Amino acid sequence: MDKQLLLDSIQKEINLTEDEIVRLLAVVKSKKVKKKQYLLLEGDMSRYALFVASGCLRSYCVDENGFQYIQQFAPEGWWIGDMYSLVTGKPGNLYIDAVFESEVWMISKVDLHRLYQEIPKLNVYFRILAENALVYYQSRSMENLRLAAKERYEKFCTRYPTLIDCLPQKQVAAYIGVTPEFLSKMLHQ
């Protein structure tokens, strides 16, 4: 398995030595995921940080009426996980599944904490990821509160330009918080 995409992502922020790369890659596990296959169910304990090597994953929750609220899409080169569960060790709130056939690289929480001790620079990398995620979720929360559906759709297109033409309209609607019917009418006005 070629892990260069993962290394490129990390080395955009920090420089690893050859020895550090070897130690990191020794704990990375690969998993092929079929379309619609779950990696995490609501109530499961999250034990891995997930990096999308190919394909696309999504995280979402479901309300009492069965309506999905998509929190994030993770195309190739993105990280995804249920951070609440991963950090607290409590059962998670999210479903994570594959939008398309995908391959993910997983690092267990246990291995990640050991790597933080062995390679302190990885603390910096994952802190940067956490800060970027916080900015993303804060921005997304404010967008959902302040923007009209059309503007939320435009933000989606900016955030996920590679997914605009390949995602089912139902999933785009769930991401921006409208029904598929509303999205269809909005796009055809």
From TrEMBL:
Taxonomic superkingdom: Bacteria
Pfam short name (any one): cNMP_binding
CDD domains: CAP_ED (cd00038)
Domain Cyclic nucleotide-binding: 15-115
Alphabetized PROSITE patterns for the sequence: CNMP_BINDING_3
Gene3D superfamilies: Jelly Rolls (2.60.120.10)
Family annotation (InterPro entries): cNMP-bd_dom, cNMP-bd_dom_sf, RmlC-like_jellyroll
Entry protein name: Cyclic nucleotide-binding domain-containing protein
Source organism: Sphingobacterium siyangense
